[in-house]
Specification:
Elements (H helix, E strand, L loop, with lengths): L2 E5 L2 E8 L4 E5 L10 H9 L3 E6 L18 H15 L5 E6 L1 H12 L4 E7 L8 H5 L2 E2 L2 E2 L1 H4 L3 H8 L3 H8 L14 H6 L10 H11 L5 H5 L4 H8 L10 E6 L9 H8 L5 E6 L6 H4 L1 H12 L2
Parallel strand pairs: 3-4, 3-5, 5-6, 6-9, 9-10
Antiparallel strand pairs: 1-2, 2-4, 7-8
């Protein structure tokens, strides 16, 4: 059953199932509440209470706005904090985030408005670099996709035209290590080359149907706030004591665990753990579910 909570100018959709210690699951881009179905089911069978959120701007929680500022990190984190304060009865929670969900989750950890017992990031991090970092990168004279996403109206107008191609391009399997990946918007999100997919055709069609009445504008608008997010995060950025686990795929070309990123992550807190899943790409909760679950249960002591 999908529930809703009204927050300011939007309604956030979520599911809340099971009893016991709480796990909060936060999806990334381009996903939705149903991304976590397999992981959620296993957590429920292990007697966890599982809360899954469709985040601000996605089809079940869209705002119907052209104002990109509505998708900055303060709003994204506050949505989750208000929800948890409303339904969790001051119980501690474990946060599991993938991709952008990790960015939101880490902000919640730093803000300390709710008690986070543990934080697990899958193929994510703490925050994006400034947009100027991406503006220096080009691929066959095409900008980095995050540079393109600084204009969400234009990017969405291109990608909305063919959602089948968009999702097939987004959910490609990565079968080998790419030294210099092509990270333009065209290649990443409209360059499907019939390589292996992490989803079957039914799953792709379900995503298309889920997004069919919604433009990708609002989810892409998250990216257009990365500079503002750095400024906003200055108000709460700190070294934390929350036990935190960052998991990466060896073949993830969207978020690569470079030595520089590894060093940065280790400085985020006093109890930071990092691991790499061998021969895995960006979609670990789908392709390497057992590795993710093993990491979760070993980390939270279940």
């Amino acid at each position: 059953m999908i529930n809703n909570i009204s927050i300011d100018n939007t309604s956030i959709s979520f599911t809340d199932e099971g009893e016991g210690e709480i796990f909060l699951l936060l999806h990334g881009f381009p996903a939705c509440l149903f991304f976590w179905n397999d992981i959620k089911q296993d957590l429920l069978e292990k007697n966890f209470r599982v809360i899954v959120v469709e985040q601000r701007g996605y089809p079940l929680s869209k705002l119907f706005t052209d104002d990109t500022d509505n998708f900055n990190i303060e709003y994204l984190a506050s949505d989750i904090e208000i929800l948890i304060n409303e339904i969790a009865n001051n119980n501690p929670i474990n946060i599991l985030g993938h991709d952008w969900g990790s960015i939101v989750g880490w902000s919640i950890v730093m803000r300390s408005n709710i008690f986070v017992k543990s934080f697990i990031s899958i193929c994510g991090g703490d925050e994006f670099p400034q947009a100027s970092v991406y503006s220096k990168l080009t691929y066959n004279n095409k900008p980095h996709y995050i540079s393109s996403f600084q204009n969400p109206h234009l990017s969405a107008s291109v990608l909305d035209k063919d959602l089948d191609l968009f999702f097939r391009s987004s959910y490609r399997e990565t079968n080998n290590k790419i030294q210099n990946p092509e990270l333009s918007m065209k290649t990443m999100f409209s360059g499907h080359n019939k390589s292996d997919l992490v989803l079957n055709s039914q799953n792709i069609n379900e995503l298309i149907n889920h997004f069919s009445d919604s433009s990708l504008f609002e989810p892409i608008s998250w990216y257009s706030n990365i500079d503002k997010n750095i400024t906003l995060s200055d108000a709460w950025r700190k070294k934390v004591d929350t036990p935190s686990y960052f998991i990466y795929g060896e073949y993830d070309y969207a978020i690569q665990l470079t030595p520089k990123l590894n060093e940065r992550i280790l400085k985020l807190g006093t109890d930071i753990n990092i691991s790499i899943v061998p021969k895995a790409g960006h979609w670990l909760p789908i392709t390497h579910k057992e590795s993710v679950l093993e990491a979760i249960y070993s980390f939270v002591g279940k």
